[in-house]
Design a protein that fits this description.
Length: 197
């Protein structure tokens, strides 16, 4: 495969008040991928925390926009422009209410599906042509409000459930970088509830 530069962007809300919340699984997965790639996310530019590294012949930048979720687009656009990365080479990792809890799914491109972070990115790039890795958090049972659900912290039981899901997402990112998006989609999109990949 031709060498590429990938921008891996995990979405979340910054600050300790939002740490370990369902909405921040993108942050957690990006950190797991960074650990697997030995990338130190110690740089900060354009309100983006990021680190740079390599996987074989591929260059990688692993990033977390540090504006709030619904304003993720502008900082991500600035860092992509700074490094000259095309929209199709940006993988966005985010939570998804409409996917079974614990399932991960790659998507090549598309709409925002009501996700404010994705909506902001689409507006900033004037395009939905970037791949995503969606991490299912499931929808809350009534009468729990959706906003309260996504911004809620994991219960201890959920944390034990999601720790291997985040590990799986990190593995999926590495597979995409090394083998390409079609291989990663084929390998991980059919693995609902399976954490042994």
């Amino acid at each position: 495969m031709q060498a590429k530069t990938w921008l891996i962007a995990g979405l979340g809300n910054p600050g300790p008040a939002y740490a370990r919340t369902r909405h921040n699984v993108g942050f957690l997965a990006a950190e797991n991928a960074a650990m697997r790639c030995s990338v130190a996310m110690e740089q900060n530019k354009f309100k983006v925390r990021f680190g740079r590294g390599r996987r074989g012949s591929n260059k990688i930048i692993i990033a977390q926009p540090l504006d709030y979720m619904n304003r993720s687009g502008p900082p991500l656009r600035r860092i992509a422009d700074y490094f000259g990365i095309e929209t199709g080479q940006i993988l966005v990792i985010h939570d998804d209410l409409d996917i079974e809890k614990g399932q991960i799914k790659f998507k090549e491109k598309g709409g925002h599906g009501g996700h404010n972070g994705i909506k902001s990115i689409m507006e900033a790039f004037s395009s939905g042509g970037f791949p995503r890795l969606r991490i299912g958090i499931g929808r809350p049972a009534p009468p729990i409000d959706v906003t309260d659900w996504v911004l809620g912290r994991f219960t201890p039981e959920e944390q034990r459930f999601f720790d291997p899901v985040i590990e799986l997402a990190g593995k999926a990112v590495i597979t995409m970088i090394d083998k390409g998006l079609p291989v990663a989609m084929n390998r991980f999109n059919q693995k609902a509830g399976s954490l042994g990949v």
